[in-house]
Write a structure and sequence with these properties.
This protein is mainly β. The protein has 2 domains: 70 residues, SH3 type barrels, CATH 2.30.30.30; 32 residues. It contains no helices and 10 strands.
Length: 102
């Protein structure tokens, strides 16, 4: 998967289509990402003797194919490419502006 924690992404499909946010967590084995403010679900928490029960709103994971990274130069969604730099390190680049994403 090409996404990393802290990447700014935009949702391209689903109920939150068009919204932007930062990736807070990457679940690479399930090919999912958690984006702040996106895919909010209600989680019911049962109370015990000391605390009362409550309904909390949490961010649920969204499939990685439903988000695209935002190009830092143009602020538009773009695909991610890879390139080898002068030091021999593999870096991520934006396909639209050909600029580095790292």
């Amino acid at each position: 998967m090409n996404f990393k924690t802290g990447d700014k992404v935009v949702v391209i499909s689903g109920k939150d289509k068009g919204k932007e946010g930062k990736i807070t967590h990457v679940l690479s084995k399930e090919n999912r990402v958690v984006v702040e403010g996106i895919n909010i679900v209600k989680k019911h928490v049962k109370g015990n003797g000391q605390t009362a029960g409550s309904i909390n709103e949490v961010e649920a994971p969204i499939h990685a194919s439903n988000v695209m990274i935002v190009d830092p130069k143009t602020n538009k969604p773009t695909r991610i490419g890879h390139k080898i730099d002068k030091d021999g390190k593999k870096i991520r680049i934006s396909k639209k502006s050909n600029s580095s994403l790292n």
